[in-house]
Amino acid sequence: MTHGVDTDRNAATGRVPRAGGGLRGLRPTAKVLPEHARSHNRSLVLQQLYRTEGLSRADIARSTGLTRVTISDLVGELIGEGLIAELGQREDARPGKPATLLALNVHAFHLIGMDLSDKVAFHAARFDLGGTIIERISAPRGTAVGEDALEIVYALVERLLRDETSPILGIGVGSPGVVDGEGRIRTAPNLGWHDLPLRDLLAARFALPVTVANDANAAVLAEHTFGSQDAASDLILIQIGAGVGAGLIVDGAPVSGSRSAAGEIGHVVVGTDGGPRCACGKDGCVEAWVAAGRLAEQLEQAADPAAAEALLAAAGERLGIALAPVVGVLNLSEIVLSGPTTLLEGAFANAVLETIRQRTISDIHAELTLRMTALGQDIVLRGAAVLVLSGQLGVS
């Protein structure tokens, strides 16, 4: 059964817009080779309007370096597809015909984002193109693994599609575990998934474009798109919950690594002095030191506030030890923490930053900043939405 769109029709009748270049180079900024030019240039136009409403065709031509003829042609095409709307004429004191202002039509399509990282429940939401949540649903996971867990995913998508009136741009999924570039879950032990072609299974079942990524990689995309307006183009996001993972953006592009496992720092052993036993069987893994559950248990046993602060600082120091080489090698400018603020703010965060500064060249990394994400528990869900926006429209 086909839901939402027909890839052979124009957008006014439900056509999925052409892909904008996937996840490399999240925000297009320049012209490219002729064979890729039209798709890329569409994304250039859409990216300008994604960030700034009320630009004219001339404004877009100046900011992108494309000719006015090219911009006029692309804007006409995008208006015909329903992705761009004309707002009216600009009030202008200059002589001549007033410019017509343009905006992205955020209601032209909806998209579905899914967060499978919560041990208790799977979460899904329907978004408009501006990232506003239209509908949010969850389903308890219980002890479901393997095929049973997959059926819960299917059911969530079916519920969101049931009463949908707008065409669906695509589905984005943030999943725990190692996820390759083809959307295959190489390994997600907690879900009982090994070599599961999740992207292909969802695409075949719902006849929609699907993008699947590791949950921490999805989270860093959310921070890049919906987080701080001053977010750096070189940052690492550390997601701390039941486990510990990291998402990387370097020079404005996500980093996945040669085996799609970049950011898997949870089972990196910190130091040579042993440490708490990790679920993987090793002693002293990052996850064993700083997972949210362990920190919470330790705080319950703390004798007084001073002891609690010392425990958090010690855990933060361990994370800082693990991050210092990464910051040094990549010359990152920002670290973002995602997780329980009651645990991570204050002594923990201060110890992370201080430890990194002690273990790197102070002059080079003096401007390194560390902050908590403002996106809260929705960060993976919103990152899943960015997977669709970037993959299908080339914007973020």
From TrEMBL:
InterPro entries named among the record's database cross-references: ATPase_NBD, HTH_MarR-typ, ROK, ROK_cs, WH-like_DNA-bd_sf, WH_DNA-bd_sf
Region (Disordered): 1-26
Record-annotated HTH marR-type domain positions: 43-94
A GO molecular function held by the record: DNA-binding transcription factor activity
A Pfam short name: MarR_2
Family, similarity comment: Belongs to the ROK (NagC/XylR) family.
Name of the featured protein: ROK family transcriptional regulator
